[in-house]
């Protein structure tokens, strides 16, 4: 049974903004996570949701390469059908399960939309293990989880908060909330470790664990691993074509993936009046697409604090954020 209580501290108070108001701490046995009030009505429907063996789930903590991975997975699982992919947005092909509960001002029924998808379904979510549908453990659909080093994940999430969620505060307050597990979907470290541990269990062969850093270092090798995981085979020429399609520049220019509609929604919904008066920013949903971009946003003190956070997150395991 999942219980919840209002959660507020100096960190949540400083990052509350139009897109993520009223934080709650959700507890299930010895597990816990932070979500917002808008998510609470989705807890039951997601727990009770039907799961099918031919489902394919892409799960990440926010801003860990989700969109990149979705595009790769959908194409690999659909015969590299670039024409169809270009006609449908990624949200249509690979919808975000808890979207209507992840942004305070977002309307709609994202869970119902996923439930009504034709099979095989492709499902995106950012949920920790404790909030997944109860049937997912027994039905065993294919799950692809992607992690990212905390410094880059936090930096990318900060820019997402500013440009999508409506946060106008200093980056230091946001980084403090991340380090003190006071953001939506927190705690980051337990989110990652739970999926890592799942993938290492004898019964965890349906969970493929990847890292953003692996994808940047050798995308072609990752395409091969994902293809095998999905039971697909492609020629070297086809893999090379997909690798080119998945480049950062290609993804930014891909209207079906670059989330321009979401950016326009944010400008009209979550941006403050002061922000609206500023000149139009050049922010793109697919931002730097690099490893180490945190160096442009963190000073030495925060880098050290995040490295301490990384050490604590991996202590006692053979997991490494950069493997």
| CATH class category name | Alpha Beta
User: What is the beta-strand fraction?
Assistant: 5-15%
Question: If strands are numbered along the chain, what order do they take across the biggest sheet?
Answer: 5-4-6-7
Unreliable stretches (pLDDT < 50, length at least 5) are: none
Shape label: globular
> Might you state the CATH topology name?
Rossmann fold
CA distance, first residue to last residue: 35 Å
Secondary-structure class:
alpha/beta
Biggest sheet layout: 4 strands, parallel
The overall average pLDDT, rounded, is 91
Order of helices and strands: EHEEHEHHHHHEHEHHHEHHHHHHH
CATH architecture: 3-Layer(aba) Sandwich
Task: Walk me through the structure.
With 323 residues, the protein is α/β, with parallel strands linked by helices. The protein has a single domain, classed as P-loop containing nucleotide triphosphate hydrolases (Rossmann fold, 3-Layer(aba) Sandwich). 46% of the residues lie in helices and 11% in strands. Strands 5-4-6-7 form a four-stranded parallel β-sheet, with helices on both faces. A three-stranded antiparallel β-sheet has the order 1-2-3, with no helix packed on it. β2 and β3 form a beta hairpin. α3 crosses α13 and α13 crosses α14. The mean pLDDT is 91.
Topology record:
Elements: E1 3-6, H1 10-15, E2 23-28, E3 31-36, H2 43-47, E4 56-60, H3 66-77, H4 82-87, H5 90-93, H6 99-102, H7 110-115, E5 122-125, H8 136-139, E6 142-147, H9 150-165, H10 171-179, H11 188-200, E7 207-211, H12 212-217, H13 219-230, H14 236-245, H15 248-253, H16 260-269, H17 273-277, H18 300-314
Parallel strand pairs: 4-5, 4-6, 6-7
Antiparallel strand pairs: 1-2, 2-3
Helix pairs in contact: 3-13, 13-14
């Amino acid at each position: 049974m999942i219980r919840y209580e209002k959660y507020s501290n100096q960190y949540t108070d400083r990052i509350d903004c139009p897109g993520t108001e009223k934080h709650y701490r959700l507890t299930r046995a010895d597990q816990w996570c932070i979500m917002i009030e808008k998510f609470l009505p989705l807890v039951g429907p997601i727990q009770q949701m039907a799961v099918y063996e031919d489902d394919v789930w892409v799960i990440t903590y926010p801003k860990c390469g989700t969109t990149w991975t979705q595009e790769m997975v959908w194409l690999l699982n659909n015969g590299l059908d670039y024409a169809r992919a270009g006609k449908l947005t990624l949200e249509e092909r690979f919808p975000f399960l808890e979207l209507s509960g992840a942004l305070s001002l977002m309307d709609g029924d994202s869970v119902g939309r996923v439930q009504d998808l034709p099979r095989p379904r492709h499902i995106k979510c950012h949920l920790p293990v404790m909030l997944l549908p109860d049937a997912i453990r027994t039905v065993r659909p294919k799950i692809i989880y992607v992690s990212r080093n905390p410094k880059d994940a936090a930096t990318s999430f900060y820019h997402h908060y500013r440009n999508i969620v409506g946060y106008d505060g200093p980056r230091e307050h946001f980084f403090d909330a991340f380090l003190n597990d006071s953001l939506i979907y927190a705690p980051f470290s337990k989110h990652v470790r739970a999926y890592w541990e799942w993938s290492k269990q004898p019964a965890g062969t349906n969970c493929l664990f990847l890292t953003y850093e692996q994808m940047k270092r050798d995308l072609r090798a990752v395409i091969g691993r994902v293809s095998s995981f999905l039971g697909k085979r492609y020629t070297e020429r086809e893999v090379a074509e997909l690798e080119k399609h998945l480049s950062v520049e290609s993804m930014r220019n891909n209207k079906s993936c670059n989330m321009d509609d979401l950016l326009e929604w944010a400008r009209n919904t979550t941006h403050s009046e002061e922000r609206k008066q500023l000149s139009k920013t050049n922010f793109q949903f697919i931002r730097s697409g690099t490893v180490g971009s945190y160096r442009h946003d963190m000073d030495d003190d925060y880098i050290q604090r995040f490295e301490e956070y990384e050490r604590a997150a991996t202590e006692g395991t053979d997991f490494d954020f950069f493997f």
